[in-house]
Amino acid sequence: QVQLEESGGGLVQPGGSLRLSCAGGGFSLDYSAIGWFRQAPGKEREGVSCTDSSGSSTYYADSVKGRFTISRDARENAVHLQMNSLKPDDTAVYYCSRVFGCYPPRPFGSWGQGTQVTVSS
């Protein structure tokens, strides 16, 4: 069973930055579209960003456009999510997943434990 692993979360002040990583472990991410999702307390999980297998096509939710950047790193077998200008509304547990497509991101497979992002002063 493929299980991706998220890391890089933490506590940051509003306006700060974090870089999340989604590691494939023993599974190569080279041929998979990968999406980032988040779930805030009391809310449904939502798609935040997505990249196709080549990295040439990306998707961003309106709420993060211009602030978040998704990228692939074949050497690390990882997909990163650079998050800048963070807001308290970005507070959530962030997950990554393989997806069937990016418009919108449609996840499949099992979820990992996620990584907590807290934006607070």
State the gist of this model.
The chain contains no helices and eleven strands. The chain has 121 residues and is mainly β. The strands form two sheets. Strands 2, 4, 5, 6, 9, 10 and 11 form a seven-stranded mixed beta sheet that branches.
Describe this structure in words.
The protein is mainly β and 121 residues long. It has no helices and eleven strands. Strands 2, 4, 5, 6, 9, 10 and 11 form a seven-stranded mixed beta sheet that branches. The chain has a four-stranded antiparallel beta sheet with strand order 1-3-8-7, with no helix packed on it. The protein is globular. The model has no long low-confidence stretch (mean pLDDT 96).
What's the number of helices? 0
Q: What percent strand?
A: over 45%
The rounded Rg comes to 13 Å
Seen as an oligomer or otherwise, the chain set is single chain
Mean residue pLDDT: 96
What is the terminal separation in angstroms? 39 Å
Sketch the major β-sheet: 7 strands, mixed
Q: Tell me the series of helices and strands, N- to C-terminal.
A: EEEEEEEEEEE
The shape is globular
Number of distinct beta strands? 11
* Proportion of helical residues: under 10%
- Low-confidence segments, given as residue ranges, are none
The structural class is: mainly beta
Topology:
Elements: E1 5-7, E2 10-12, E3 18-23, E4 34-39, E5 46-51, E6 58-60, E7 68-73, E8 78-83, E9 92-102, E10 105-108, E11 115-119
Parallel strand pairs: 2-11
Antiparallel strand pairs: 1-3, 3-8, 4-5, 4-9, 5-6, 7-8, 9-10, 9-11
Summary keywords:
single chain, 121 residues, seven-stranded mixed sheet, four-stranded antiparallel sheet
